[in-house]
TrEMBL record:
Gene expressing this chain: LOC113204619
Bias (Basic and acidic residues): 287-297
Organism listed in the record: Frankliniella occidentalis
Span list, region Disordered: 271-319
Pfam families named among the record's database cross-references: Brix (PF04427)
Keyword annotations of the record: Nucleus
Protein name in UniProt: Ribosome production factor 2 homolog
The keyword Ribonucleoprotein is assigned to this record: no
Family annotation (SMART domains): Brix (SM00879)
Main location, first listed in the record: nucleus
Length: 319
């Protein structure tokens, strides 16, 4: 017999606002990420989680307590944690003899597991080991994906989408050149993924466009794809569905070429030129000389008609 759950309504104004903020929004807030540890973690995974937390701040929370869970066998704890903190992304770190230095990156949809990818960290260099200046807090990075695997292999395509979702912050309507200070590069070669993080330096070039230099600031990691648990195409399409209010309405007879130039097509119906009124239009009025010619032609035509009328009368009288 099914158990009916009682729906608890908020009793305060603050509680009502919290529940309304968790409901689906037309324009969603920046996705939050929570990072947690497994039953056992090594030094590499601890440093890796700290660096990912530094890259995601302030849109992330680090859970210090260790958790005896296996996400690929039971993801209920992750779903509950995401619902409790209103977070859609998670990073889980663990270390076992079978899977050393294990890193799991995943996301939730409607507080249910959507995608999950397991990566094995083989070589890792923390941000602390790079003795140089770092980027500012909360800066939106520029992501670069190198290699054919990102476009040819289905699992790498989904991992690319997951990484873009992980490092995506608020939507920017315009981009300023001086605001692009951080770039993260992911290179997929021969089954391995190399992650590099750089700070962009704008140098003088003697021209309007500055000279670009990259300075590695960390973290740097060499990872290997182990296991995946991906959502079906239909579920992913449902999760990526946009509300009607955000859909751009297509304008009829308006197109854009490759250079961004807008072209419009105008449909003009067939006009009745013979019935156009032209007497009151100044540009189409006759000159005085043309009016004299018209009057002279009219007198001549009347005279010819009168002469032809007299001749017909004589013929009738003689007959």
């Amino acid at each position: 017999m099914p158990v009916l759950q009682r729906i608890k309504k908020p009793t305060t104004h603050k509680g009502k606002k919290v529940l309304l903020s968790k409901e689906p929004q037309v324009i969603e807030n920046t996705k939050q990420t929570f990072l947690l540890k497994g039953r056992k973690t090594g030094g590499i995974i601890n440093d890796c989680l700290k660096d990912f937390f530094s890259l995601k701040k302030p849109d992330a929370v680090m859970l210090s307590q260790k958790n005896d869970i296996l996400p690929f066998e039971d993801a209920s704890f992750l779903e509950q944690s995401g619902k409790k903190r209103d977070a859609n992304l998670f990073i889980f770190g663990s270390h076992t003899k079978k899977r050393p230095n294990n890193l799991i990156i995943g996301r939730l949809y409607d507080y249910q597991l959507l995608d999950m990818v397991e990566l094995g960290v083989e070589n890792f260099t923390s941000m602390i080991e790079f003795k140089n200046e770092k980027v500012g807090l909360g800066l939106k990075p520029c992501l670069v994906f190198n290699g054919d695997l990102w476009s040819q292999h289905h699992e790498y395509q989904r991992l690319k989408n997951l990484l873009v979702d992980l490092f995506h912050r608020e939507t920017a309507s315009a981009v300023r050149l001086q605001g692009i200070e951080h770039v993260i590069a992911f290179t997929a070669v021969e089954g391995k993924i190399y992650m590099k993080s750089y700070r962009i330096l704008l140098k003088k070039s003697g021209q309007r466009t500055p000279r670009i230099e990259l300075e590695e600031i960390g973290p740097s990691a060499e990872m290997k794809l182990r296991r995946t648990k991906l959502a079906s195409d239909d579920l992913l399409k449902t999760a990526c569905k946009q509300p009607k209010e955000l859909k751009i309405k297509k304008k009829k007879n308006v197109t854009k070429d490759n250079l961004g130039t807008t072209h419009g097509r105008i449909h003009v119906p067939k006009q009745k030129i013979d019935k156009l009124q032209t007497r009151k239009m100044k540009g189409l009025k006759k000159t005085s000389a043309e009016r004299k010619e018209d009057r002279a032609a009219l007198k001549k035509r009347r005279a010819e008609q009168e002469a032809s009328g007299i001749s017909t009368k004589r013929l009738r009288s003689q007959s």
